[in-house]
Amino acid sequence: MDQDLKLVRRCQRGDLQAFRKLVERYEGRIYTLACSISGDREVARDAAQEAFFRAYQALPNFRAESGFYTWLYRIAVNTCLNAARKERRRPDGVSLEALVESGKVSPERLFETRHPENDLERTELQESIQAVLNRLSPDHRTVVVLKDIEGLSQDEIADALNCSVGTVKSRLSRARAHLRDLLRPVYTEWTGGEPA
Question: What pLDDT was estimated at residue 33?
Fold first, then answer.
């Protein structure tokens, strides 16, 4: 029996300390997931807390048909998508191309050794990448985050989203194509050529 399942079984018997351990184990990943899906740290914080609350409430019904991690991700993704729908807002993030054009981000400096003077550029780039992700539909953004950022397999994503693997493949293909279109001007600006 894996460690998560042991903790879940203890939670189901009323051990709150076991649930705290599960939260500690996954809170960073769930918060990161929520940030990536919502694009807003405040919304992400609330959604992550709500996801753990819902998971705790649903633990008595957990049957281990999938891994705890996948089950928790399904709850978190649904909570984040619901929060994003309620917010119906997108941050006014600056596009990558605008940052490059303004001179605020130098592609060469982003790959230099970390120095305090380029930390701001890195932060701006991260925010810009999030802004580009936010231009994807919630369904497409979610599969990209789960696959390319969180590293889940297509089977795990299908399980987390409660859809078929074919649907995951289709959404991922469309999302990546849209991302390529959104990022092409930035790539061209940085390298002086078209992506291969």
Answer: 86
